[in-house]
Amino acid sequence: MPARPKSRPARRLFSSLRAGSERNLLDTFRDEKVGGVLLLVATVVALLWANSPWSAAYSHLLGIVIGPASLHLDLTVAQWATDGLLAIFFFVVGLELKREIVEGELRRFSTAVVPAVAAVGGMLVPALVYVAVNLLQDGGSLSGWAVPTATDIAFAVAVLAVAGRRLPITLRVFLLTLAVVDDLLAIVVIAVFYTDSLSLGWLGAALVGVAAFGVAVRRTGWTRSPFVLLPLGLLTWAFMHSSGVHATIAGVLLALTVPALTPGAGGHSVAERLEHRWRPLSAGVAVPLFALCAAGVSLSAESISGAVGDPVAQGVALGLVIGKPLGIVTATWLVARFTRATLAPGLAWWDIVAVGLVGGIGFTVSLLIGELAFGAGSPHTEHLKVAILAGSATAAVVGGAALALRDRYHARTSAPRPEAADPGAPTG
């Protein structure tokens, strides 16, 4: 009799991890844990300053104009924080994305599909929640639909480091990869939906700058020279700013030109070396200073009651706390359902729920999109900031508590890493 064909082994979600992804995880945890603490400190300082007797000095500082008007760079301190400092943040995000595409979880469809689909779900559902809340009420605005769609990497890593130290490493990489893809989608949204005017000449100059940077970064002798790469990067940023496209886009485009292939055993790619050089500046300086400039909002009874009654703020808060985890978990479940996959041994859907709750921390990019959606001085902008702070804090506390419970479970059951797990191990 002919031999019966062997059945394919059941596909497991979060069952393996590429070496490149583990390196990326360690790099991110090393600096973003400290960055999360500094981001929290900067946010608290901004809130205390904005609600102190010296609040006028805070507003005056943010309104100081610096830069040459002839180059369209006569920006306020607040604008420099948004357009300039966050370009550094998105440059580092772009480097991390490039490394994941070349050597990490995004290299192959089989490992990329879960975080990519989860990131899309984690953007679509919060946006739908926001739109539904604002359509059902008078006085709402659809302009801020993208505000609750982003996950803050620094805060998410900080919560994960404190509450999820015993979680399987594949699950932690899932959250980080999801957040990186999330930020990439957010930058696409900014470029497509929040560009009011476009100068093709300046945009062409910016793209030429990106190409020149890509050529220069591949020259062995120039890779380590800031005297070549830094001026090219600054020129590209300035051209992109003048084009009408948000200047942070330049950071991602420049990063994607950087080679990310590891040259050999024990070697480091150009992307990895640049990330090691720039991540401390991003996590330790750029993002906290942005928070210092952006998070200062009045927390008076009047402003809080205004935020509670504003459909824009309601949509943002509900999008972060409810929409974000619902989108992440639902999208991940759909991947498992349609691919007939199961979770790796030792993991349970409660682990995915906990990660989804942490994904609702939408601080940095949410503040950026909020300012782009409504502009400085709009009552919606101030209400948004209250909603982002409240929603992100709620997601951090609830998500952190959920992670701590799952962390305790994994410690109690002594679950090994999924890639080495016993198929008969309990699944929660």
Provide a descriptive summary of the structure in words.
- The chain is globular and about 60 Å long.
- The chain has one domain (18-65, 77-194, 246-416): Na+/H+ antiporter like domain (Na+/H+ antiporter like fold, Up-down Bundle), CATH 1.20.1530.
- Helix 3 packs parallel to helix 10 and helix 13 (311-339) packs parallel to helix 16 (379-413).
- Strands 1-4 form a two-stranded parallel sheet.
- It is mostly helical.
- It contains 16 helices and four strands.
- The model is unreliable at 415-428 (pLDDT under 50).
- The two termini are 42 Å apart.
SSE blueprint:
Elements: E1 12-13, H1 19-50, H2 55-63, E2 65-66, E3 75-76, H3 77-103, H4 109-135, H5 153-163, H6 169-193, H7 200-217, H8 220-223, H9 226-243, H10 248-256, H11 270-294, H12 301-309, H13 311-339, E4 342-343, H14 349-358, H15 364-374, H16 379-413
Parallel strand pairs: 1-4
Antiparallel strand pairs: 2-3
Helix pairs in contact: 1-3, 1-5, 1-11, 3-6, 3-10, 3-11, 4-6, 4-13, 5-6, 5-16, 7-9, 7-10, 9-10, 12-16, 13-14, 13-16, 14-16, 15-16
Compact overview of the structure:
With 428 residues, this protein is mostly helical.
Structural key phrases:
428 residues, mainly alpha, Na+/H+ antiporter like fold, 16 helices, 4 strands, 70% helix, 2% strand, globular
